[in-house]
Structures are given as structure tokens and as C-alpha cells.
Amino acid sequence: MKKFFTFLFALCIFELNAQTIDDMLKVSYQDYEGTARFAAMGGAFGALGGDVSSIGINPAGLAVFRKHHVSFTSSLNHVYSNSDFAGVHANNSRLYAGISSIGAVVTLENQGSIDWNLGITYLKKTNFNRRTSSGSVLSENSIIDYFSDKANADADFFAPDYLNSYNAFFDYNPLDWDVVMAYGTHLIDWDENAYLGALNYGDRVYRQINSSYRGSSGEMTLDVGANFNDKLYAGILLGMTTLNYKHEVAYKEYAHENNSSDFDKLIYNTNLKISGYGVNCKIGIIYKPVQPVRFGLSFHSPDYFFYPYRNVEDEEDYPLIMDNLYSASLEADYKTTEMPLRDGPGGEYYLFFEKIKTPYKAVGSFAYVFGKLGLVSIDCEYADYSRIKLRGSEPTSQFNSDIKKYFKNTVNLRFGTEIWIKNFAVRAGYMYNQSPDKDYDLSRQTCSAGFGCKFKQFNIDLAYIHTNAGDYYTHYAEAGRISESLKNRRLSLTLGWTFDND
User: Staple partner for 44: which of 121, 126, 369, 416, CB 3.0–4.6 Å?
Assistant: First the structure.
């Protein structure tokens, strides 16, 4: 077992039959959608403030407000993916709508030389929604060979009596459920002193995979901001994070019509669900040395989740707790059988880990305001994804080691500009997120543009955001990598109201 984990992670290859550090990366990633103005300007608001979404980047932005303000933002997303598996391309897309942000700011009466503001916001941090399909690839490489090789690599551990046990799914770790199911569906069988697969030498199979990600993470915040003589702004934020992440995979193989073996097809399904609630804290300042110039600095704590249905002790080292559920099933069909053979743990789910600590962040910002003509703004964000940590049952210690080995720190840049023509504004932005993976390019580039109109107490803003990103995954150890190109096109609409303090 230990040898298998060492071999698996040394190749930096992640199985379909269990959680992966890639899933942990997606759960920890943050990419605020925000208001239409925020999105159109690339999210570069750390030194500007005055927007409900800016509070999530730098809480000091709350103190910039001079009047009561309420806003609501909805978005329409189109996610398109193109996968490349051994030179065979396949496309998939998904369209969905949602709420990107809701915010309310209350300005309090002047307290001497300090003005205080209070705020409450909801910000969508990450959208996981997307579907991916790979093309059908004909190959002599089958997952059945992977099952038999894995079983033979530790034949004593995967003894037939153990695999045939009534409690096999409880006795084996979920990372080994694939061998249990392969034996139960006769994709592998014991022959005197070794496991043999259901395919004969020279047989070929068509391989295909469908993968879907669903859910999102969001952040409810309570904020306090202080304005010191319009020179220094400070703020603190307490956030409650909600997380709902689902990753479903359906892997299929079909026998070539000229095969000599009895095998016909198989369907291997896995289902991972991660959910939880938690808290975080952010602090920040904005400083204006002279009227046109603004500097911003903020720090974000990791997310500290808790699972509401379980009492967990020893929170000191790993204060983030998540509910992690995993299930799998395998179905095999043969030419000589009327009904397919099915195996799996049934409705049982397995709690894989209990705690995870996401990376902290630091954001430095600069902005220059050209009087009543417009402005430019730059944010530089640091996050170290190698500091993600898990705690729970094995093999979380191996996961932690490989997270540290394969992930790295990132420096993300955001640029934004805005031009004012009386009550009309034109905006543009660019965002570059560095890849957190040392070996593969998972970087993201986002271009955005939009406009806004401001009336007496009402404003309306519209933005278009286009993101290009890359991703990858593997069927099993010898299958080869599937490269994925992602495009996310989003339209955001914000309606806002501003009220006098009277």
C-alpha cells in the first residue's frame, strides 16, 4: 500500500477513484465575481474602495463611502471547454445564471475626526460549474490492466479472500475500492498465483470520460471601516464562507469489435462532495499622501471552516473542518452474460478528511486619480498554495507532502482603468493569475470591459468578462494526460442605490 502511494504521487498522477490534491486546489482557489464595475476593471480595487466588492479585497474600502449605499449584482456565465486526449478533441459547454454580490453600507455620524461606516455583503468567491468530455480513443491500454497491475503489486494485501469478504469496502481504504470492484465484477480474477485481466493480449478498447463540476463558494461579511480626515482609511472584515463542491466522473470503455476476449464494456463512476461553513478575517488600510495618489495594503487569513453536525476536538493546528463524502460504482458487461455485473459500496459514503487550511493572502495596491477625468489602478496579490494542509485519515499525510511538493506560491496581478464623461463611465481591466502548479500551466488570463451610468440616487453598471484558463487530468496511471482549454464568458449587471445620511 505504501509503495503504491509513493509510486502514484511520484508521478504526480491523480486517480479517478478518490479525492485528489487537484480538488483541494479548486476548493482553495478564490476568484471574486463582484459588481459589474469591479469586474469591468479587473478587480483592481485594493487602493480605491467605494465599491461593495472592493471590501473583499481590502476592508478599508468600506471607509471610502460617504453615503448609505445598497447594490445587487447578477451574472450570466457561459463556460466552454475543449479537451485533447491523445490528439482527439471534444467540446462541451454550460450556461448558468447566479448572484455575484449583494451589499449594503451604512455611514454613521461623524465622531470627532473619525467617520465610521458599517457594511454587510455577500460575495461569490468561486464558480465550480463546468462539464468536460473527452473524445473516444482506441488503445491497447485499458484500465483493466491498471486494476490487475495494482492488485499484483501487493498480492498479499489484495488477497482473493480479502477482496471477496462481505466487509471488503469497509476493510479497504477508498483509494483501493477500484480493485475491490474490479474483482467483484470479474474484470480481474485470481489464477493460481497472479491476477489476470478480462482482456486478452492484443485486445483494444475505446476509452471515453465525462466529468462535471458543480457548486460554488461564497462569503458573507460583516465590516467596519474608519476614515481619518480623508487621508487614512482602515477596515476590518469578519467573513463566513459557504462551500458546496461536487465532482462527478463517468469513465467508460468499449471493446473493439475484433477482440478475442469476452469483455464488452465497463462504466466506472465516482462522486466527490465537499461542503462546509467557516469564518475568516481580513484587515486593510488605504493611504492618500496627496489627493490623486492612493496606496492600499491588506491581509487575508486562511478560511477556518467548521462542520455543523460533528464535535471536533483539537482545533489548534488545523482549524478548518470540511464535510468530505466520496462514493464509487463499477459496472461490467460481457458478451456471454445477459445482465451486467455491478459492484460498489452502495449508498455508503466515506469521510476522507476532516480539516483543511487554505492559504493566507497579502494584497498591495496603487491607484492614481486624474481629477474628474478618470483613474488607473493596480493590485498585486500574493498567495502560497503549497501551504494548503489537510488532516484526517490516511493518506492525508501523503497528500500534504505532495501539496507542498507540487504546488507553489503565486503573484497575481490586476489592472483597471475608468474614464468619466459627466455621469457616464467607460471601464476596462486585465487580470493575470499565475499557475499554482509547478509542473503544469494552470494560469488564468482575464480581459474585461464595461460601462456605467449614474443618476441622482441610482446607478446601473454592465460588464463583459472573458477568461482563458488551462487544466488537465488523468484517467489512471498509464492512460496519459488529458489537456483542457477553458473559456468563461460572463455578463454582469449591477443595480445600485445611494441615500443621503439625513
Answer: 416
